[in-house]
Description:
Two copies of one chain form a homodimer. By secondary structure, chain A is an alpha/beta fold.
Amino acid sequence: xxxxxxxPDEFTVTPWEVKGKVDYDKLIVQFGTxxxxxELKQRMKNLVGELxxxxxxxxxxxxxxxxxxxxxxxKGKGFFLYTGRAPSLxxxxxxxxxxxxxxxxxxxxxxNLYIEITDDEKFMRNPEYTLDQTRSWAYDNILDIIAVGFNxxxxxxxxxxxxxxxxxxxxxxxxxxxTFSEVRATFGLDVSSNIGLIFYPAxxxxxxxxxKKRCLIPAGIDQDPYWRLQxxxxxxxxxxxxxxxxxxxxxxxxxxxxxxxSSNPETAIYLVDDPKTVERKIMKYAFSGGxxxxxxxxxxxxxxxxDVPFQWLYYFFEEDDNRIKEIEExxxxxxxxxxxxxxxxxxxxxSFLEEHRRRREEAKELIQVFKYDGKLAKQMWEKIHE
Amino acid sequence: xxxxxxxPDEFTVTPWEVKGKVDYDKLIVQFGTxxxxxELKQRMKNLVGELxxxxxxxxxxxxxxxxxxxxxxxKGKGFFLYTGRAPSLxxxxxxxxxxxxxxxxxxxxxxNLYIEITDDEKFMRNPEYTLDQTRSWAYDNILDIIAVGFNxxxxxxxxxxxxxxxxxxxxxxxxxxxTFSEVRATFGLDVSSNIGLIFYPAxxxxxxxxxKKRCLIPAGIDQDPYWRLQxxxxxxxxxxxxxxxxxxxxxxxxxxxxxxxSSNPETAIYLVDDPKTVERKIMKYAFSGGxxxxxxxxxxxxxxxxDVPFQWLYYFFEEDDNRIKEIEExxxxxxxxxxxxxxxxxxxxxSFLEEHRRRREEAKELIQVFKYDGKLAKQMWEKIHE
Lengths: 386, 386
């Protein structure tokens, strides 16, 4: 008889699974990406005047060809941004992180942004979903995305089932260069996969060729493998290899391992969670680095490295560098209790969500602009990508 | 040491290869289709007043659900026709056969016809072709198809790369129901196939669901396997299983086995072949059932069963039943010489081609109607198939 033991440093990161406590330095080596060095950050700061909190705190920590993107920007050639979303019923805070950072990049570099809404893929991925469902989620998710505050003149949000005509010629050119063997492992497919999912990588790659400039993709590092295929074939079609800037995973409420999951509501804060729900979830589920009793906490202090409320504040919700340092010290020393720390996060979250929902209401007026009538959107509907 | 011997009755029929002398009765058993019986022919004749020469002479000899199509027609529910073409550089006479028969069906039953031009598939199938090439062949082939004389109010000719937006929602629903395993053998694919070809069956099946009526597909019997997949899934999507009416293969000029091939110019008469070329090809290459010398021919007579010029006349070019019988008897008896028989075919072919080319010139004016502006075309551009 024997027991299978998991080594404490074991972790898995693939596009369809994140397990264990991720060692991000190891991941950079495994994936063959580049670390965002202090030099590179300084260079960005020199170009745009400041660094987003997620860059300052290394939430975005890894990249491919970001240096080349900055070269192109400095030379006046420019670049463009591309990200996307597989529509789902209800987005959570984790889903917004890349969009928030992407908005900052757009603001600072004043570049075009393309956001692909994969209503087709989502439908084909899940046996139970209907296309009507994924399209109605697409509508809802687009409102949440617009609420982030993108530039309506320079942002084009498109749904695959609507924009397919414009993308299809370039997609068949991409598809012709990728065999089933090549996409199989990367996209988690096998011979029992449906033929729509097998073709879909061509549609995910197509927007990287929307302009004859370098494309920068901000995304979780788990998405990196998808773009390796693009990098293998882009130049043979006369386009640039897609550059990427990779984020760590905002830890789930329930503990510092893995990532938030839509199927476990207690691991995430949803964008529709009302103040009471946010308070209840944080108080009940948020994994704490504090001590079991107040006495022990005062004596030994809390551990911010494993404390999820602290991590969330650090990743994004407390942007003030002095204030986050203060919180860290007070918590570590035992001066700040777990309940107090949680309350800080609750307040931050609730004011963030209140503002988000206000802007989401406004987005209902703007959806037509981002999808069809805006300056960039109009140009894109007139263009067939070859 | 041993020799591999081919049994005289061995033959192969798949969508991508026809080899040997085809035993069509055996094929009906192998493929599990139905023979077009005399009763079924009589029923068609009663409905529309006459039988096309290709039905009278059993060139169209096999079917699936043709009886159900006639039931629907009799009940006033109706049906629709669907066929297609993978564009190529230069169509030959064999390519026109299904279109000519389809035109007859449309005329007699007064039904809608959809013709899919698979510029995408052709591009992805052949490593050397560019998409610009297959689209320019599409234009040329459409002219030849229009020249056949379809009803411009009831015919919609569409190219995949142009019409994709309208087909894509139903195509992803189809794609979701077909796994790589399922399409692999049928479409001659394997893991080294590109992902575009793997998805393509969904686009070939989509037009069978353009109307909530039964779809009848006239085609060579080698195309039958493609539609078995459609028949497996159609009802689960709320549509009818596609019915088919299958033709034999017009034999290549060079002999009674296999089928015409675009890559061997001496096996086929092209629609652009001028009178001199037609004469030279028939005289030089057309496989004869005659005797080696005039004397022997007069004595023993010719064999119309293996004589290709006779077969071509019988399949289509001599529609008069009395005249073809006369030719057969004269040839079999030795009264008609090989050269005389060939001359009959040459004259028929040349007058057919002359008329075809005249109508092909007129087609340049009509292409806009069949693709975009005609009554059916307009309706189809306003419709998204779900």
